Amino acid sequence: MSDEENDLVLADLDDGELVEQMMDDLYDGMKPEIEEAVGILLERKWTPYDILTKALVSGMQIVGDDFRDGILFVPEVLRAAQAMKGGMSILKPLLIETGAPKMGKMVIGTVKGDIHDIGKNLVAMMMEGAGFEIIDLGINTEASEYIETAEREGADIIGMSALLTTTMPYMKTVIENLKDQGLRDKYIVLCGGAPLNEEFGRAIGADAYCDDAAIAVETAKRMIQERLNPA
Amino acid sequence: MIPADTDLRDTGLAPIGAGRTLVIACGALAREIIALIDMNGLTHLTLTCLPAILHNDPRKIPQAIENAVYKHKEDYDEILIAYGDCGTGGQLQSLCDRLGVTMIDAPHCYAFFDGTKTFAQRGEVTSFYLTDFLARQFDAFVWEPLGLARYPDLRDAYFGNYETLVYLAQTENADLTAKARDAAERLGLGFERRYTSFGDLEPFLTTGSGS
């Protein structure tokens, strides 16, 4: 980093420059700078929703694109996600107060027998950034936890994640449980995880396999719209 | 001659041996397979290895194996694939079925070293595993690709849900045990050493049967 960048005072930047700088800082995983910039934009009377969508989500989309293209790797994406999380933790209570647009509600978790949650956490964060309310069940999630929570919370989407070849078949168990209870068509069921693919998603009866967090957001938005406006 | 770990990691191993059955193996298994060939007089086997680093992007494994099978199939009577599923989500098994070659019926080398049935029965959800090869190559396969040298604060994001590092030892080697114990400390995990020897790898090579 140059001396000039070291001396950068975020508060001296105009709005456009600051948003651009936030995207750079997000890309570089600079959490304190993101938190500071969010505070500055709030002082300038930006709405929490605009800060979220125009700076954080837009910046994270660049990170996601570069990950997909092999330019960024997992550590950098994680750092960016941590920076975004820092900004979101400031914005989240304000978003609730100011009534930001709601896209739908998603219950998400890593399936039973599996403790890997990096991908699941990324999806949850990006879905939240896109306006979905997230109920995160964490790791090692039983079918009953997915279904009972979705029922109790009035969710639209059930999202399942797995990293292991040995745990991914449990997704089918969850879907079979939904069918047994006559609830399968009530929910959009999305699945994701490194060893999965579209063929697996179809085979277990999920509505879609999502290759990454950005695709999960796009897919969820499209499917929610299709439910609201059936052809 | 024992191949260098760095070669096994990055480039693999050209065929060694004069047997009519070719074993296409992960580079991480080369030393163990060579030892088993020597111990059991398995002169009908020839060994070649793909780079072990493929495991850091398992989606590349099936294509690499398919390429190797097509490259060598005219030169051998039979081909064995010394891989488990290795994070390919069933793609490797589908490929082997299509090509008519036998692979090891196990999710990964941790399982077949421990004994695939035993491993499944243990149900160790919160354990992270190393083998002899991975104890030697911990930095190349874990520490560096996860960016932990640059960003030590990411450790808990990766390993916060784990409790124990289980070192599945193929050999009695105090230096490797020390390396594995050090890896556990660096990851902030408890440590357990479990001597497995070669597990299900031995019957796979001696019988040519996947399960």
TrEMBL record, chain A:
Keyword Metal-binding: yes
Domain B12-binding N-terminal span(s) in chain numbering: 9-103
Xref: PROSITE patterns: B12_BINDING, B12_BINDING_NTER
Gene3D superfamilies linked to this entry: Cobalamin-binding domain, Methionine synthase domain
Keyword annotations from UniProtKB, A to Z: Cobalt, Metal-binding
CDD domains: corrinoid_protein_B12-BD (cd02070)
Keyword Metal-binding: yes
Positions of the B12-binding domain: 103-231
One Pfam family of this chain: B12-binding
PANTHER family named among the record's database cross-references: METHIONINE SYNTHASE
Name recorded for this polypeptide: Cobalamin-binding protein
Organism of derivation: Celeribacter arenosi
TrEMBL record, chain B:
Organism: Celeribacter arenosi
Top-level taxon: Bacteria
Name of the protein in its database record: DUF1638 domain-containing protein
Pfam families the UniProt entry points to: DUF1638 (PF07796)
Domain DUF1638: 49-204
